[in-house]
Design a protein that fits this description.
two-stranded antiparallel sheet; single chain
Length: about 350
């Protein structure tokens, strides 16, 4: 453990910053570069005798405090993703909540009918359980108690889908979901996910599948995917389209990303609720990562602003500087190795000359 508490704090902050990846690092580096320019100017003033070390430390501390306030303020609300994504989710959710509170008689009847339909499905699943088991359970070659298999359940699910038997289809879905923890073949897990896909429910595995399939596709393919997701009203596809749009480097400048933002009010309730929660969590994590980068830059500024190795020049050194500056400066490109009556450019003069050359 370091005996210097400031160094220990700097090491800890640096390790945290190293493990946190955030685009805010570029902004923190720009702010730190501005502070270092001020620090270098203060150091030159001390070496010229224009400032005392104590006053330079006070000015550096004030500059570090200003940088701290600015960086932390920006980091608290930082996100590399435009605010439009969160605003669209919030507006759509609030609009739907208000519409639900002022629902018409027709809407209430539709919701009531859907609840009755779900209740009937649950009742039939219980009363027809023996029928479903007889159609999907298989006896092994060696005998024994009949049991369902992945293949038999998938086949039964397909038959129920074709015949329009919602109770049998839901029963098969639940049986397949219960078998997931006992299945280790990736292809079988994929088939279970596809069979258990419900447009009105969120399945993180399906969202991941959509994202893996669409990342890296061209704009036309993404636009087609977005249009199909909105047309079908599939919660998982809508969530995947939103995440893809959020990751797009050009953001709302792309046509398919604007289509996603414009289509947010059409998202299913499950997709809106899941995306609003995940967007809030993502922005919180992005702000936390930005704070980590800002704290490391602030710690560096605090450490460098102490001028721990800086000492004020002595009278003899100041006199030597005066004699040096009293000589005429050599022209640009003029050799001064043997010209004792010429001097080289100071850092300030060199910077001014460089600026003039770049302007030309």
């Amino acid at each position: 453990m370091s005996l210097n508490p400031n160094r220990s704090l700097l090491n800890l902050t640096g390790m945290r910053s190293h493990h946190e990846d955030s685009p805010f690092q570029a902004e923190a580096e720009v702010a730190l570069a501005g502070f270092r320019a001020i620090r270098s100017d203060l150091e030159r003033q001390v070496r010229r005798g224009d400032l005392t070390v104590k006053l330079a430390r006070q000015k550096a501390e004030a500059a570090a405090a200003s940088m701290r306030a600015d960086l932390l303020t920006r980091a608290d609300t930082y996100s590399p993703v435009p605010r439009a994504f969160l605003d669209r989710l919030v507006d759509a959710s609030e609009s739907r909540r208000k519409a639900r509170s002022q629902a018409s008689l027709e809407t209430l009847q539709r919701d009531t009918n859907e609840l009755l339909r779900q209740s009937i499905i649950e009742q039939q699943m219980q009363t027809r359980a023996a029928e479903f088991e007889g159609r999907s359970f298989r006896r092994s070659v060696g005998g024994g108690v009949p049991a369902p298999t992945i293949e038999s359940l998938l086949q039964f699910h397909q038959e129920a889908t074709v015949s329009g038997d919602d109770s049998a289809r839901e029963w098969a879905r639940r049986q397949l979901e219960s078998r997931r923890s006992q299945t280790f073949v990736e292809a079988d897990l994929r088939r279970i996910d596809l069979a258990c896909d419900r447009p009105d429910r969120i399945n993180p595995r399906l969202i991941t599948t959509y994202l893996d399939a669409m990342r890296g596709e061209d704009a036309d393919a993404l636009e087609t995917f977005v249009a199909e997701a909105l047309r079908s009203g599939d919660s998982n596809a809508c969530c995947a389209a939103f995440v893809l749009a959020r990751e797009a480097p050009e953001g709302p400048a792309l046509r398919w990303v604007r289509r996603v933002l414009d289509g947010v009010p059409e998202f299913p309730d499950a997709a809106l609720a899941a995306l609003r929660s995940s967007e809030a969590d993502a922005r919180s994590a992005e702000a936390e990562g930005a704070r980590t980068k800002a704290e490391f830059a602030i710690a560096l500024a605090d450490a460098e602003g102490r001028f721990s190795s800086l000492e004020a020049p002595t009278e003899a050194e100041l006199e030597q500087q005066e004699r040096f500056l009293a000589r005429p400066r050599a022209a640009l490109g003029e050799p001064i190795g043997l010209a004792l009556d010429r001097r080289g450019a100071t850092p300030e003069e060199f910077d001014a000359l460089s600026a003039e050359l770049f302007e030309v």
